[in-house]
Specification:
431 residues, Rossmann fold, N-(1-d-carboxylethyl)-l-norvaline Dehydrogenase, domain 2, 14% strand, binds nicotinamide-adenine-dinucleotide
């Protein structure tokens, strides 16, 4: 199949590697982003993302594709849609106070509808509230374009299932679900996906079933983490190591317990409950178990802030005025993504309690007022160290400890430190 041009709307964690993946496979891609800073950085070959593909960094791939002209970046979505046969939508629906904010997603749908060309294909890859593609997007596309779906243009819902940090690899190897209302839309969507994917392509003619399955994939991780956090509290009370228990339980072929860290962050998992809940409200049903799991995970930053205060007290120190070194601000190990990050929430809670927080994470670009530029600056004369994620493969918290004020307090949410490596008198807590 030959495609002249693909427009990828939204050049964030999903859209940029996806656009570059199509470009790597020989397509001409226009990346579209409404944020002028994103556009001007990408034009210069700059991104804070840490993806790699076959030994090349995303920065190298971006710069190569810009030079070859197979990847262009613009904030002019209208022109990009008019020039493209395929439009891929990756703009998300944020949640504010439990309520979805459609503003950005809707603006992108309007741009697509207003500029759609006859015969074009739209792939929606954003995670959405079940029913959005057919009840929200399709009417906008039809009304704004004056054309009929399935006749004059085509669309499919193709949820994005990658994990940040493995994007290029998982575009190729993760099975792709396609929710398409008719055979022709499916065939067109599958041909585009086949350009970048070697994995299975699975069709459902229920677009809403595919939308729901994507939300449930994220929700089962949310609930799994709430469960392992509860197991961790049990293991602690019984004087056992939760990591060892999980290692043992996961040797069962049908068990896959996730690891308890400092909480659940990022764009995907914390929002999933709210996406489903909007639909559940509409249907007049409740989701008590999933709601409880979400509430429990929401409480984790406060749990770890309280635990820090308790450990400081045990070392004869007060939270007020204590200097707390924090290792890791992203929502997971090695990641630049600090959206809804429990680490950031923990820092803010500690500051509210009067602590001086100095956090180091070289991957995170956000300018938090409590972020410092080196681990030494964070650790220097600190009363406590909180390990919230692994910043790099060679991250060694023992280097931090050398810089700290005795007696040392350590809270390790990743189970990295062994107590026997610590100086005598250290107050230590490990998940
Ligand atoms: N991040 C992940 O690992 C991941 C994985 C699977 C699915 N998803 C889903 O993919 C979607 C995108 O997630 P993301 O993490 O890439 O988000 P992101 O915030 O990193 O990227 C979205 C980009 O869209 C841009 N944008 C907003 N409105 C726009 C408009 N009208 N026109 C053009 N650009 C616009 C923003 O400036 C931003 O750069 C979400 O629905 C998310 O739930 C994300």
């Amino acid at each position: 199949m030959t495609i002249d041009r693909i427009a990828v709307i939204g050049q964030g964690y999903v859209g940029l590697p996806l656009a570059l993946s199509f470009a790597l496979h020989g397509c001409h891609v226009i990346g579209v982003d409404s944020d002028p800073d994103v556009c001007s950085n990408l034009k210069k070959g700059i991104t804070a993302q840490t993806e790699t593909y076959q030994g090349q960094s995303i920065q190298t791939i971006l710069q190569t594709m810009l030079q070859k002209g197979t990847y262009q970046i613009t904030d002019n979505g209208a022109e990009a849609v008019r020039r493209s046969e395929v439009i891929v939508l990756t703009v998300g629906i944020p949640i504010e106070s439990g309520v979805p904010v459609y503003e950005y997603f809707e603006a992108a749908c309007n741009t697509i509808g207003e500029n759609l060309q006859k015969g074009s294909l739209i792939l929606i890859r954003s995670t959405v509230i079940p029913g959005t593609t057919e009840n929200f997007c399709k009417p906008i596309f039809e009304k704004k374009s004056g054309m009929k779906a399935g006749v004059d243009f085509f669309f499919a819902y193709v949820p994005e299932r990658i994990a940040e940090g493995k994007a290029f690899e998982e575009f190729e190897t993760m099975p792709t679900l396609i929710g398409a209302p008719d055979e022709k839309s499916f065939d067109k969507a599958a041909a585009i996906i086949r350009m970048i994917s070697k994995a299975d392509i699975i069709r459902s003619d229920s677009v809403m079933a595919v939308e729901t399955s994507k939300v449930l994939e994220n929700l089962q991780r949310d609930a799994n983490i709430a469960i392992v956090q509860e197991f961790a509290r049990f293991a602690e009370a019984a004087g056992m190591d939760i990591m060892e228990i999980i290692r043992l339980a996961n040797t069962h072929k049908r068990v896959n317990l996730l690891t308890p860290g400092p909480g659940v962050g990022g764009y995907c998992i914390p929002n999933a409950f709210h996406y489903l809940n909007v639909k559940a409200d509409e249907l007049g049903i409740e989701l008590p178990l999933l709601k409880l799991a979400r509430q429990q995970n929401d409480r984790l930053p406060q749990f770890f802030a309280d635990k820090t205060e308790e450990l400081l007290q045990a070392a004869g120190k007060s939270i007020a005025g204590a200097k707390i070194a924090v290792a890791g601000l992203a929502m997971k190990d090695f990641s630049p993504d600090d959206r809804l990050s429990p680490a950031v929430m923990i820092c803010n809670l500690l500051i509210q309690s009067g602590a001086k927080v100095a956090a180091y994470d070289k991957n995170v670009a956000t300018r938090h007022p409590f972020k410092v530029d080196s681990f030494r600056e964070a650790a220097n004369s600190a009363d406590a160290l909180l390990i919230l994620n692994r910043i790099s493969r060679d991250f060694n918290p023992l280097e931090w400890i050398d810089e700290m004020k005795k007696p040392i307090v350590i809270l390790d949410t990743r189970g990295i430190i062994e107590p026997e490596d610590l100086p005598e008198g250290t107050v230590f807590w490990r998940i």
